[in-house]
What does this fold into?
Amino acid sequence: AIKSFLWRAACESLPTKLNLHKRKIVDSSLCPICSLNPESVSHAIWSCGASMDVWSMSSKRIQKSSLHEGSFKDILAFLMDHFSPLEIIEFAVTTKAIWCRRNNWLFEQQFQSPSQVSKLIQAELSSIKLWIENGTKQKGTQAAKVNRWIAPPLDMFKANWDAAIDKANSRVGIDVIVRNSEGAVMASLCS
It folds into this structure.
């Protein structure tokens, strides 16, 4: 979820006031929180006073990043080039938390203080670090399991299939592929 959020932010496709104003959905592009600047992605997540309050509680290297101009993509590219993987993870988790805080304020009128958001960020980072540590331990103890296609006996065919059901739209999709003992495709079906 965080990766796709960062991708959408870097592509300037989040529903900020500026993007909604460009599409003539809202009348004003001003930030709904500070009302001082147009709400671009970089403003909402990085340079708005409300987001800067949260960033002030992050690691010192992120706090001291002097990137106040430019698109979110420029900010992200700089951080990806100059920061460690754990700092990038902290940045990613913090950006998502700031966006959620903004949305909670705008749509549910629930205000979260910077310290509340920081606690949520720290809890998320702790669980990610634990997952990384456990994943590293498990990789060292388990042999890699490789799934690969096994050919049928000579002069026989093998059919592999997959299906998906979309209950909401009452649709079913089925794919079938038939191969001979050499692995050559003899027939396929997609519906």
